[in-house]
Amino acid sequence: MAVDTSEIRKEIKKIVGKKFLPLKIIDELVEKSVKENLTKEQIRELVKRTIEIYERNLIDPSEACGIVGAQSIGEPGTQMTMRTFHYAGVAEINVTLGLPRLIEIVDARSIPSTPMMNIYLKDKYRKNAELAKKVANQIELTELNEIAEIETDLTDLTITVKPDKDTLNKKGLTIEELFEIIKKMKKISAEIRGDEIFIALDEPSYKNLLDISEKLKLLKVKGVEGINRVIIRNEPGEGYVIYSEGSNLEEVLKIEGVDPYRTITNDVQAVGRVLGIEAARNMIIQEAYNTLSEQGLNVDKRHIMLVADIMTVDGSIKAIGRHGVSGEKASVLSRAAFEITVNHLLDAGRRGEKDTLEGVSENIIVGQPVNLGTGAIQLVMKREKMKRD
Amino acid sequence: MEGANSITKKIDYIEFTLLSPSEIRKMSATKVITADTYDEDGFPISMGLMDPKMGVVEPGLRCKTCGQRVGKDKCPGHFGHIDLAMPVIHVGHVKTIRDCLRATCRECGRLLITDKRREEFLEELKRCDETGRSKHYVYRAVIDEARKVESCPHCGRAVGKIELDKPTTLRENGKKLTPSEVREWLEKIRDEDLPLLDINRNAARPEWMVLTVLPVPPVTVRPSVTLQSGERSEDDLTHKLVDVIRINQRLQENRDAGAPQLIVEDLWELLQYHVTTYLDNQTSGIPPARHRSGRPLKTIAQRLKGKEGRFRSNLSGKRVNFSARTVISPDPNLSINEIGVPIKVAEELTVPVRVTNYNFDWCKKMLIQKFLPENAQKEYVPGVNYVIKTAGNIRRRIKITEKNAETMLEKLEIGDIIERQLMDGDLVLFNRQPSLHRMSMMAHRVKVVPYKTFRFNLCVCPPYNADFDGDEMNLHLLQGEEAKAEAEILMKVQENILSPRFGGPIIGGIHDIISGCFLLTHKDRKVRLDKASYLLAAIDYKGDLPIHVDENGERYVYGRDIFSTLLPKDLTMKYKSKVYADRDTSEAYVVIKKGVLKQGTIDENSIGAFKGKLLDRILRDYGMDAGREFIDKVTRLGIAACTIFGFTTSIDDEDIPEEAKLKIQEGLEEAMEKIKQLIHAYENDELEALPGRSPEETLEMEIMKVTGKARDMAGEIAGEHLGLENSAVIMAKSGARGSMLNLSQMSGCVGQQAVRGERIHRGYKHRTLPHFKKGDLGAQAKGFVASSYKRGLTPTEYFFHSMGGREGLVDTAVRTSRSGYMQRRLINALEDIRVEEDGSVRDASGKIIQFIYGEDGVDPARSYNGDAVDIDSVIADVKGEI
Question: Which CATH class is domain B505-645?
């Protein structure tokens, strides 16, 4: 049912006029007006009332939205489980959830304790099992010892790599390709002898032999650094999706067939690095919101937004805590009251810092009304004038 | 009260600087040279550590500097000073000193970078100021660059390598630098270079970080305590200062006598140790100074630091008067915004009232009424505890007793202040710790009650997270009119029914209230007229109700209609009830038309906290006061309904028939068989591993699945035999308390016990308990509890169950501390953020965090579960009208 909504949209916009309504509400109004088949008169009344309710529900000036937000996220924290590791989406991959994950998010940890990616594929690939498998093979990190036996010969100080044909096939590799990779190693010369690759050392010695065979074992044959395991699943309505344990957004996005618009990781810092600060902000909101809702806790998105915004205002991802937001506060007293009291005081003395007492902690310490809520209003009655009147 | 006609002073800013030696001397009241404190007669020694020039601690004594006493006229105390024989390094600044030495030349004292680079760095700093970036990296860069230089670009002297030997020894090319040498070097650094070393020349000079004079804090800062035995016990700081002075003296004597260099150096180092520990007794690398008893001394840094330190304990948190604390207990007959305050408490807490022309008679009545014979029989009559009279500058606080009440009555005059006792209707703040959100502290109206506990309506338990297993709560009495007004408008319980966390009610019916309403409204419940009158009396209903007559001539009323009396007359709504959440038949819906409950069962989805749709609607459309009244009445109605219908649960609520037990038994055996097969398959390597899993992990996952299913099966079978005539089921299904899972565990099977999300596997070698064979992977051997709680657990099952239970306890303990710290950090990071008049969200310094709050400027507490406007209901209204 393709009803032309633009007429109604125009109509609604006209009624809104100079007043303000968020786009989301206008969209909803348009959609529902069409669905409910409202008359013009009804729409007019609907929009009028919506604006009225919207304006009534606006937040008050001087509201301590920061503290309310912090409490709204902190309080449900006490109800969350500590049990880490539960299955997120796919049964095969464990992901940190609950309180530890929430703490990880506000800490802006550079590497999450259980990095994970949902890799979506471009149209051509996601419908085709073969192609999806191929992409997965390019992503999963494969080391040489997983696909081949490495034998060292102590008598003539050589190494033989005996690839297992089946696994080689499974990974979509040929022995020639393997040879090309091994050849790139330094201080050796390699050649193919039938099904095996024969390696001789440039400087034969027992020590070198040992070093090189160790290096060979961990030689990256294929895949992306950091991604240890991938699982391909056929999701209804989507096609093949690759789930990975470990995360490396930079490299995975480069791989042919990966849909860069939808692929996600739970590594906030990587998102900030690769996709920019706005993406990181959205990631923090998403991740925190999902972590809370997964535990059945209902927290308004606006609180989480505020936390994400304070973490990302200046263009870098800052942690909530002494190394991030709290450590960069302008007020000496506020920093001293939080953590590492003595150093902050000594540094302040050396730098000749001035505390202008704008924030909450400082004013409590000094014993003054705080600059928030009712404390922000300075209303003085002129008694002399009153008497005269 | 005192501040009413004077505007309080406001601190504009606080500036931090270092103390220069001359400043220390200037502010010093006396030089301290004697390590002793008091002489034999108990008088403080002049120029000793307790010199009265530095202030006094005992009441009555006068300070020799300002001539005032402690307490009333407030002698704040005065600093003294110790002249150090040799300079010592200040531990707190040792890293700055190191960086200064690294960045400058020992010969000429200039920065070890060319003038051109210097200008560039200064430019960079300026740019940082403009853009608001952190200057930290510039300072690092200056030092790093200077460290790479081999000879001074200004005088050509070879640059030595400066190392810091923790805590306070500095070396140049491995050779020790004495503090004197360091100080000489630092003196050479030019003022112009200081900005690049992160030192503000208006606040500090680098050589001040090497101490030549030590300030001695006033006596009031380190008061001595006189024990019962008459013995004096000195403060830790005094002890430490004694050490400093003693070594300082010895050092001076030895140096003046020309003692060998070695001895002087040893003493010098000892002096350094004492000064270091005086400043911070937890410096790493040196043993902490100890008291004679072996306890480490609490010196300056320790006084300030940490949770018990000055900052967090005394400055950020302050003790208050006019507060009370006692055990709490429930009282469903109180309104949600009331609180029952025991008489004992009410008699202690007072409110100041100024005596004026307008209230003079009332004040007189207050003063005397407690002692009037006609009030002698009354349980509680508020009186007056004190009268404050002000004559000139003298304030007198007179305690009112039965004896002086009458004379005071005559003396009472306008301008006095009476401190009257707590009365019904006073507004107080009520709080339970931990105060995790703003609903942990709400304003209630006082109702003075007998006995010794605070009492409040049960519906207020969730916001406080309180129960009555011995919880204690705090009460604060508001003293000023401003405070009362604020609390009235912002903090009263009914203003906080909607939680700002998710925009829904956090206060609502719980437990028996829900059970009672369920009983009343479920399945066309009929109530005989006499009982109906009892119910209606409980909610003060005056009016008509449709009365029906049954075949026996008995007159009755529908329970539904009784509940309808609580509904606003124009309310129309339809939603699903919780009991039949899984069904889609008409009985699953609650239908209210024009304030009459037409059909459906009232349960948690109607009146519960968090989920109550009816409650939510009443709050939003009819206001907070209507919501409060609704909750109050629902509470009384629910309890009354439970009372007349009778509601009880006991162990035989979990009884299920023998054949059901057998059926469960069979089901469990089947599951055991399946597990056996799985183990068999695993042992023969026939088990197909899940992708990316080892066979062991696969087996565990499969078994967990089977045991999970087995418990669900037992629960289902048990559930079939537990119907809605069963009280326990009513509680679970209506959302009053408990869940069907709890019931199935009681009557069916407890299920698999888990530790860390896995079956129990630790214990003895290759087995969990000696009761099992080694390597047994079966259900019973790994913590499956097949019994029900009612039947009782076998010893091994009991043990496994305890293991699971213990994990839960540990989890809770760990969780509270971790989430507490997270919340502290969040609060500290977000505390200054507020919404400005222009709608933007900014921090204390005015930096914009959001241009509009939450992308739409809507207050979450006023939102409809997060949505700014509930468009559907607006459409319904509009359609109904037009």
Answer: mainly alpha
Residues of A in contact with B318 (CB under 8 A): 364, 367
Q: Does any CB of chain A come closer than 8 Å to the CB of residue B481?
A: no
What is the C-alpha separation between B78 and B55, in angstroms, rounded? 6
Q: Provide the 8-state DSSP code for B422.
A: P
Cβ contact (<8 Å) for A53 and B869? yes
Does the bond joining B330 to the residue before it have cis omega, within 30 degrees of 0? no
Look up residue B602 and give its amino acid.
Answer: I
Reduced to 3 states, what is the DSSP secondary structure of residue A328? helix
Domain B31-78+217-313 listed as CATH 2.40.40.20: no
Cβ atoms within 10 Å, residue A158 = 16
Q: How far is CA A71 from CA A67, A77, A317, B436, B437, in A?
A: 6, 10, 22, 6, 5
In chain A, pLDDT over 90 holds for what percent of residues?
Answer: 12
> What's the pTM?
0.87
Q: How many CB atoms lie within 10 A of CB B667?
A: 20
Q: What residue in B sits closest to A336 (Cα-Cα)?
A: B311
What letter would DSSP give residue A60? Answer: P
Residue B764 has pLDDT above 50, yes or no: yes
From A29, A72, A310, residue closest to B829, measured CB to CB:
A310
CA–centroid distance for A281 within its chain: 8
Whether the CB of A370 is below 8 Å from some CB of chain B: the reply is no
Which residues, 6 or more positions from B668, have their beta carbon under 8 angstroms from its beta carbon?
Answer: B710, B714, B749, B786
Neighbours of B163 (CB within 10 A): 15
Q: What are phi and psi of B553, to 5 degrees?
A: 85, 5
Q: What is the CA radius of gyration of chain B?
A: 38
Lowest mean pLDDT segment, chosen from A2-11, A247-256, B328-337, B682-691: A2-11
B820–chain A Cβ distance below 8 A for any pair:
yes
Per-residue CA distances from B143 to B101, B118, B128 (Å): 10, 12, 18
Q: Over the stretch B356-402, which tens digit does the pLDDT of each residue have?
A: 999 999 998 888 888 888 888 888 889 899 999 888 778 888 888 88
Every domain of chain A and the residues it spans: 6-56, 142-222, 329-376
Q: CA–CA separation, B466 vs B464, rounded Å?
A: 5
Q: For residues B97 and B185, is the Cβ–Cβ distance under 8 A?
A: no
Mean pLDDT of all residues in chain B? 87
Contact B61/B69 with Cβ under 8 angstroms?
A: yes
CATH architecture of B323-462: Beta Barrel (2.40)
A326–B contact, CB cutoff 8 A: yes
Residue identified by tokens 């933007």 is: B840
Instruction: Identify whether the C-beta of residue B648 lies closer than 8 Å to the C-beta of residue B712.
Output: no
Q: Which SS3 state, helix, strand or coil, does residue B170 take?
A: strand
What's phi and psi for A276, nearest 5 deg?
A: 100, 170
Residue B305, chain A, CB below 8 Å: the answer is yes
* Residues B576 and B592: beta-carbon distance below 8 Å: no
Ordered by start, the domain boundaries in chain B are 31-78+217-313, 88-214, 323-462, 505-645, 651-795, 834-880
* First and final C-alpha spacing in chain A: 70
Output Rg (C-alpha) for chain A, integer angstroms.
Answer: 30
Q: State in words which class domain A329-376 has.
A: mainly alpha
Contact A139, A226 (CB under 8 A): no
Distance, CA of B75 to CA of B57 (rounded, Å): 10
Phi, psi of B662 (to 5 degrees): -60, -40
Side-chain-facing half-sphere of B728: CA atoms under 13 Å: 21
Q: Say if residues B823 and B815 touch (Cβ distance below 8 Å).
A: no
**Pick among 2.60.40.10, 1.20.140.10, 2.60.40.3710, 1.10.132.30: CATH of B651-795:** 1.10.132.30
Domain A142-222 sits in CATH at: 3.30.1360.140
Backbone angles phi, psi at B852, to 5 degrees: -140, 135
